Amino acid sequence: MNRSLVVDVLFWCFAAGSVVTGFLVFRTDSMVRAAFWLLASFVGVGAILVLLAAEFLGVVLILMMAGEMLIMAVVMVMFMMNPAGLNPMFMVHQHRFAVAAGVVSFAGLSVVALTVDFPDQPVDPSVDATAELGFELLGDSMLVFQTAGVALLATMVGAIALASRNGRFGTADEGSHEPPLEIEELESP
Amino acid sequence: MTLEALLVVAAALFAVGLYGAISQQSFVMLMMGLELMINGALLALIALWALSTGGNPQGQMLAIVFMTVMAIEMALGFALITNVYRVRRADITEKLRKLKG
Amino acid sequence: MAPGVAVVSVAVAMAIGVYAVAVIDGIAGRLVAGAGRRGVGVVLDPPRTVVLLLMQRRHRTERADAQGWALAPALLGGLAATGLAVVPVDRGTAVADPGTGFVVFATAIAFVMIAVFLHGWSPNSLFPLIGAYRYGAQALSLQIPFLLAMLATALPAESLAVMDIVEAQGDVWNVVRQPLGLPIYLMVGVGVGFWGPLNLPDGADLVGGTSAEDAGTDRLAWEVARAAMLFAIAAMGAAVFLGGWWGPLLPGPVWMALKTLCLLVVMVASRHLLARVRIEPFVVACWAVFIPLALVNIFVSGALLL
Questions:
Q1: Which of C147, C83, C154 shows the shortest CA–CA distance to C112?
Q2: Is B96 helix (H, G, I), strand (E, B) or coil?
């Protein structure tokens, strides 16, 4: 079988799959299902990256998203209303504006994609992209890599400080509740 | 699998994500929209890396930075959601009318 | 390798692995606890169980997510197949040997938590959902020590291809080079396969946890997929820690099978030898003990290579 034909068919399957599942994220009743649809969308994109010779990045994207989506599902069930999706759910605001923004951004980006003449320089199939990335990470771009690491460390510290229940100012639950909008009348003695 | 097709698919992912990020009320659904947008951007980046820049390793490096941004967005987003829920009992954007703690 | 041959060889390997898990479990149970049948009965028990489960009626719950319920065991089995496919049997013989085989296996392991969560969430029932959350906590804590313990084995090979990792163990196996690696890997493997002492999501205290509502073919598919996952973990451990096909006299694939069997016996027998662990101390141990140990393992093996 022709190899490029197989790649093309696979590409269109993954592309259609990732866009459709990405759309279903906002069309499903249950937040857990939404998380699984988003995961499916990421798996599709990861598979396209593998087809594009960015093998390592594609697989790592899928690896990363598995954990993220699980956390997402758990967070949703912890905090959000109607987590299990037993009732139909359609929680949106400014819907028309959102649809318009989506359509306009898609049209604009597509026009750019179709009209701009990008240079045609495909990646050399004989080069091991994973090894190249490794040398780049620990060679010329070491500083960028280190910065990303430090940023992640700062994120960890910040996230724990934000999410921790016991802070410097007492337990987080007892923090400042939003004051009521109406001014309560004082009880007359 | 042409560059144009890849970029249009990336644009579609980005647009769907934008629609979700603007329209959803729930914080977590909003973050899903953001994730989809980054997803589309990542796809466009790798498409250009693979088909237009001849596999320059710095393109992959940028993709790693993208993934770092994704991770940071998720971690801080969830931490903020947790905190906002504890302090304000808020789970949708409408309940946050002011940013002051 | 032709696609047909690849699919058939993975399926055959999985079938052998699942059968081996069932038989080892039966023998270990008889030897340790004195339970189960004697003699050849141990070998015939697994097919008997299969027939019984096939005849059993399936459960249905109210407003269950039928697709998710059916997908979960299929996903787990598919992940086991993916994991097995990247394990080399002999020099140059593997179903698939991508340059990032190591990352592919790690991804399969990471997706196990999606499969288990789906399996616990989809029946729309209380105990399965609690089991699913428990496994979320368990798996997220297990991931990092697992990745670190495995990553250390890629250092001497300077490659993420599993074939290269095995090839680099000609002089000395990784289990000798990195004595901390294999114990951590086995602990994590038992946890990922939610087996024995770490069977927290499907534990007896949750009336069966995520599989509380499973009966008949559902239960059969789930147990088979879980056993296949254990087998894939044992095979990968044999390849990256015990030197895969390396060994005197016997041909490579035989060595590989023997080593896989050794690890499988250790993992499966843990069910009858060790007490069940509670989730809270286990999560604490993962973050506070196993991650530092795995980091020490990586640093030491890296320093030795310099």
A1: C83
A2: coil
Q: Domain coordinates of chain A in residue numbers?
A: 1-93, 132-164
In a 13 Å sphere around the CA of A50, the CA atoms on its Cβ side amount to 19
What CA–CA distance (Å, rounded) separates C231 from C265?
Answer: 10
For A86, which of C63, C111, C113 is closest by C-beta distance?
C63
d(C-alpha C149, C-alpha C158), whole Å: 15
Q: Which residue has the tokens 């459709």?
A: A20
User: What pLDDT shows up at residue A172?
Assistant: 60
A62/C114 Cβ within 8 A:
no
**DSSP SS3 for A12:** helix
Extended beta strands in B6-90, E state: none
Helices C252-273 and C3-33 pack at an angle, to 10 degrees, of 40
Grade residue B14 by pLDDT with cuts at 50, 70 and 90.
very high
**Whether the complex's predicted ipTM surpasses the cut of 0.90:** no
Please spell the DSSP secondary structure of C164-197, one letter per residue.
Answer: HHHHTTSSS-HHHH-TTHHHHHHHHHHHHTT-GG
| CA closest to A137 among chain B residues | B61
Average pLDDT value for chain C: 86
Residues of A in contact with B45 (CB under 8 A): none
Helix (H) or strand (E) holding C21: helix C3-33
| pTM to 2 decimal places | 0.88
Residues pairing with B92 in the sheet: B26
- How close is the nearest chain A Cα to the Cα of B1, in Å? 5
Of A54, A68, A91, the CB nearest to B49: A54
Are the beta carbons of C140 and C279 closer than 8 angstroms?
Answer: no
CA of A187 vs chain B CAs: smallest distance (Å): 26
Q: CA B38 to CA B45: how far, in whole Å?
A: 10
Q: How confident is the model at residue A34 (pLDDT cuts 50, 70, 90)?
A: confident
